Amino acid sequence: MKETLLELKGLETQFFTYDGVVKALNKVDLVIYKEETLGIVGETGCGKSVTALSILRLIASPGRIVGGEILLEGEDLLKKKAEAMRKIRGRKVSMIFQNPTSSLNPVFTVGDQLMATIRNHTNMDKQEARNRAIDMLKQVGLPDQEKTLRKYSYELSGGMQQRIMIAIALSCEPSLLIADEPTTALDVTIQAQILRLMKGLKDKLGTSILLITHNLGIVAKVCDRVVIMYAGEFVEEAPVKEMFENPRHPYSRGLLASIPKIGQERGTEQLGIIKGTVCSLIDPPPGCRFHQRCSFSKDVCRSERPQRVKVGEDHFVFCHLCQ
Amino acid sequence: MDTLIEVKDLYKYFPIGGEQVKAVDNVSFTIRKGETVGLVGESGCGKTTIGRTILRLIPPTSGKVIFEDRDLFKITKGELKQARRRMGVVFQDPYSSLNPRMNIQSIVGEPLQTHTKLRGLKLQEKVVELLAQVGLEDALRRYPHEFSGGQRQRIAVARALALEPVFLVLDEPTSALDVSVQAQVLNLIVDLQDNLGLTYLFISHDLILVQYIANRIMVMYLGRVVESGPTQEVFNHPRHPYTRALISAIPDVHIQRKEILLEGNVPSPIDVPPGCSFNTRCPEKKGGICEREAPVLTKVGEEHYVACHLI
Question: For the residues A139-164, what does the mean pLDDT come to?
């Protein structure tokens, strides 16, 4: 039986801008199980990163979490004091970002940054932390660990920097690693290396991974389950294979049809497109947020928000048409 | 089919400090009328430099680019202006390739003002017609910031088409866009080619895109072409170890392949390894010869060329 690690209940995050209130996350529910890799997929601005940052309570002003619960092993993170939250970040939940070059501090050495994280969260003395740091660098496959510790981030390539980020993120053996587009800034062969590394470490350390990406191919390669987001809401969740073979939500289908497949030649078929553009998150349409672009929409889609419907084993869809 | 562009022994070195960055290192190829050639490789392998040299936006260190039977680097200024009408370019980032202070009419109309005698209402009519081609009829008086990434890229396409060129360099035209928007732009590019008979050089790091759009494909590594051939042939029977690794590394939704994982990073183009430039990462390296001699492109099939000692 799968054990729940993290549960989002009715989570609502909004940004209070001069133009109006941006409803970036609209009462979303999500469960992440222990030792699984869950992918969140969606297009720019759909709320993927906001979901991740909300979990870590890193939403910056003018944004605010306005409602809901974030239960990590049963404890609500939204009720924690700031000090307690700092002990969770990097220790129980850690995160790596899209651009490793800007996530590392260029005026501190790799060793400084790695050891700072370790010593912040454990009782290790300097020498122990150093040994731990060297061990982590070994685990992420970097050669010359002693030398690497003394290097600055700009002396390393993008792939190596991302390995350092992973070493920092996993140095305190968190139960959840949030990876926000971890390979978008990297070349394909380096991307393959990093994905392989993340998968290996996950199996070894038993960490759950929340992988945020817009690349469906990566999801197919590393995730167990996947959630598709659209305009601040989840529209479909399913095990990866099921999602690719049998997508049910019109948006998921549109998204899958829009990527070229190997062997698909342009003479034979056009790429699928989703007509129109994403709705405004300041003034989203009532009912299903996708209804204006959906070719199957009915009256009920314009007035009522769709509920989560079970359509198969672990497969849920938010769509009136599937009811 | 007729040859439109012929690139011969092209070298482009950028001097940095006392050293040379070997961005393009002895590349030759041809592009025929009406076809799409895909150029793939990782960042820094020289894809964009080739695109820019073909357009004579930068001078080569040595070598020739023959466009419609004329050597682009030997022609006079007047002839160059004529040649420039026949070619266009769409850049990767539609946020920096459109001037934020110009409205769409000026942006799309600028090449027409430079090269034709169209002015006033006639010019405006032509611009509207161009914008209609890319599905943005009412954009005339608006400014770039009012458009989304996909719409901006279409404006850039309209501008590139203004002088009815025969040849377009598309330098990562969709890599800044979301997948559903990417599909719209790709469909547009394909439709335009079918309707106007254009020739494309499609530069991308995304192999799936290239295999979808290109007739022929060239794989580059560290400034050299390591494999070239008809797209489906290269995809189904890749011969160079680098091409094989690249294809195996494509994260694909539909097929799970056995992955060939390359160790390490691409070496610096300042300090290219002697012999085959791929020898430091090659999983099938034979030893001596790979480190000593640079392999040359050898024919292995119908139009299919590979530069590897193992072949």
Answer: 89
CATH code for the part of the protein at B3-86+165-306 = 3.40.50.300
Q: Among partner residues B148, B179, B212, which is closest to A214 by beta-carbon distance?
A: B179
Q: Where are the domains of chain B?
A: 3-86+165-306, 102-164
DSSP B232-285: HHHHHS--SHHHHHHHHT---SS--PPP-PPPS-PPPTTSPPSSSTTTTT-TT-
Q: What is the mean pLDDT of chain B?
A: 89
Q: Is A231 on the interface with B (CB under 8 A)?
A: no
Residues in chain A with CB shorter than 8 Å from the CB of B252 are 217, 220-221, 261-262
Share of chain B above pLDDT 70, in %: 98
Nearest to residue B34, comparing CAs of B155, B182, B195, B185?
A: B195
B183: nearest CB among A196, A258, A263: A258
Predicted local distance difference test score (pLDDT) of residue B124: 92
* Contact A268/B at CB under 8 A: no
Domain ranges of chain A: 4-92+174-317, 108-173
Among A191, A196, A271, beta carbon nearest to B187 = A271
What digits encode the pLDDT tens for the residues A227-254?
999 999 999 999 999 998 899 999 999 9
Asked if residues A238 and A316 have their Cβ atoms less than 8 Å apart, the reply is yes
Q: Which residues of B touch A44 (CB under 8 A)?
A: 178
Kindly state whether A267 is in contact with chain B, defined as any CB-CB distance less than 8 angstroms.
no
Mean pLDDT value across residues B48-63:
92
Which residues 90-119 of chain A have a CB within 8 Å of chain B? none
Check: CB of residue A160 under 8 Å from CB of residue A101: no
Residues forming a β-bridge with A96 = A179
pLDDT at position B256 over 70 = no
Look at residue B262 in the predicted model and tell me its pLDDT: 85
Share of chain A above pLDDT 90, in %: 61
SS3 label, residue B166: coil
What's the CATH superfamily of A4-92+174-317?
Answer: P-loop containing nucleotide triphosphate hydrolases (3.40.50.300)
Please give the helix or strand (H or E) that residue A93 lies within, else none: strand A93-96
Q: pLDDT class for B257, splitting at 50, 70, 90?
A: low
Helix pair B104-115, B120-133: axis angle to 10 deg:
120
Q: What is the pLDDT of residues A164-190, one digit of tens each?
A: 999 999 999 999 999 999 988 788 888
